[in-house]
Amino acid sequence: MQSIEEVILDLNTISIEELERRMKILEKKYHAIVMKSFESY
Length: 41
Prior knowledge:
By secondary structure, the chain is mostly helical. It has one domain (4-39). 76% of the residues lie in helices and 0% in strands. The chain has helices at 4-10, 16-39.
């Protein structure tokens, strides 16, 4: 898993399509983390 810094540095060289793909992956991961934290309450 890349760090946020690496992802940002990569933005200079990647395409819009690649950026959108990564955003979707991050969104899914973030959503899963949020759901898990709610379940623990």
